[in-house]
Amino acid sequence: MMTLSEAEKVLSAVFQSADRRTYLPPVPGAPIVFLDFDGVLNADTTAALPWSLHTPYYIQIQKRVFGLDATMVRRVNRLCAVTGAKVVLSTSWAHPGAWDAEGAEAILRYFGFDGEVVGRTERRMNIARAWEIEQWLQTHAPCPYVILDDDEHDQLKRVKDRPWIRGRWVQTTTRYGLTDPETEQAIRILREQTAAVEQKAREEAA
After folding, report:
1. For position 159, what pLDDT does the model report?
2. Cβ pair 160, 134 in contact under 8 A
């Protein structure tokens, strides 16, 4: 967890530098949580983000955005702790022009995240969230994964029957954010995939 002053220092460095964080490939086979922020880690009743953690542009136009909810962040902590999962940021917060990956991670840690962030999906002009996730999967080793996303703009719903998303997407709502039942659903999804991978490995070794 980061203090407010620690998060402010990270964001200040991010906003003043053209350098962008690069991530090493995650351990092959490690479970992955594709994590959206809005509608997953916050809800309609969540308090605004502290002004000092807003982007310079938002401060300039006096636009306040929701912060994150510590209770929902703790649910992600539980998900990662019991499954061994790592997080890939699949949120607009992590894109250049917003907080970028390093800034988004600093905010996540300020609200109590204690897991490991191993990457982010890459933003492409006119490319929907679903395709960002698919591109990440195509360029990394196969692994168990789950997608946490409210899908406010129906980007995932349009392709929900594709093999790479079917049974792996937990849809939250902007009204409630990530709930306990949805957290348990995500845990089951990752455990089932991990068990299938382990069973296949045993069969191949026999």
Report:
1. 75
2. no
